[in-house]
Amino acid sequence: MEGMATVEHLKDVVTAGVAAPSPDNNQPWRFRWEQDRLTILLDRSQALPSDVHHMFDLLSAGAVIENITIAATQHGRSTEIEPLWDPDDPTEFPQVAELRFSAGARPDPLAEAIPARCTNRLLYAKKPVPDQHWEHLRASVAAFPDVHLHITADRNQLKALARLVMLADRFRFEYPAFHAEIFRQLRFTAEEAERTRDGLDFRTLALPPGSKLLIKALRSWSLMSRLNRLGLSRALTWPSYGSVLRSGGAVLLSVPEFTFVHILAAGRAFERLWLAATQLGLALHPLGSLPIFIAHEEILDGVKLTPQHRQLARRLASRLREWAPALSSRVLMMVARLGYGPPCRVRSLRRPVESFFE
Ligand SMILES: Cc1cc2nc3c(=O)[nH]c(=O)nc-3n(C[C@H](O)[C@H](O)[C@H](O)COP(=O)(O)O)c2cc1C
Q: What ipTM describes this predicted complex?
C-alpha cells in the first residue's frame, strides 16, 4: 500500500519530524501533503542571520527527515527521499525534499528516543564513556558513508578543542547582527516560551542564577560593544571552555563538499547519532559556533566579517586541521560534546504540528 494508512499516522510521523533539533529552536520547516507525498520546505522567515547558505537550517531539515523516516517504520512504512533543493529558488518556502511512503519496513528501535532526545547544556560528570559506546555511535552513522565522524575522548585533545570552541563563541558576541539574533531567539520567561513555542527558553540554557538580569542588560548593542572592549565577549565564552572539559568526549561531523546533498546527509547522520546517544543514556550538546564561523570565512569568503575576525576565523580553521588532520580537505558540519549529565530539566517547546502545513 502506498502513502500513510490514516491521517493519524501522518500526524504521528510529522510530530516525530518536528521534534528534531533546530538552530536556536527556530523550527524553520514547512510541510505539504499532496497525493500521498510529503514535501518538506524551508521557511526563510525563520532563518538566522548567522547561518551560511542555510547550512544549519538544512542540517535541521535532515534531522526532521530522519525522524520521519524512523517514525514511519513504526507504521510499517519505508520512506523514499527525493532531494529537491535548488539553491537559486528565490521563493519564501524553498522545497527541500519529497518523501514517499510504501508498505514494508521493520520498526526502527531508535523511534523511542525521538521524544526523549534533548539539548543538554548542563555540566556533565567527569566519567569516561566506554569504548563500546563510541563504537555504537560510530555504527549509528554508518549508513552515511560521506559523513565522517571524528571522535575524541583524550583529555589533552579535548582541552585543545575547548580552546577552539571558546574562540569561535566570541563571534556571537562581537557582531551586531549575531548579537541581535541571540535576543530575537531568547525567551526570558516561561510564559513567553509557551506563547511562541519556539526560540530558546532561558531555563534550558543552564546559566548561573542571577545571569538573566545581566543578559537582559546586554540587549543594548552599544553597551555590549563598549563592554567587549573591556573583555566581556572573552569572559562570556569561558563557560564554553569549562563545559567541553567537563565532558566524556566530543564528536565532529564533516563532509567532503559544501553541497546540499552532503549537508542533508550530515543532518540525518547527526540525528541518528543523537538518538543513539540518548538510548545509551548519554547527554549531548551541539557546539555550532566552530562550524558556522569557519563556514563564514571558507564558504562566504568572510563577507560578513571584519578583517580581524576573518583572521581569527582562518586561525580557527588552520588550528582545527592541525588538531584533526583528517578534516584537512573536508567541510566541518557540526561539533558536539557528550557525556553523562543530569537530565534536561526543561524541554524546548514546538509549535503545533498543524501550523507547519501549507
Ligand atoms: C544545526 C544546529 C546547530 C545548533 N547549535 C547549537 C549551539 O551552538 N549551541 C547550543 O546550545 N545548541 C545548539 N543547537 C541545539 C538547538 O538549540 C536545539 O536543538 C533547540 O533549541 C531545540 O531544543 P532541543 O534540541 O532540546 O529539542 C543546535 C541545533 C542544530 C540543529
A: 1.00
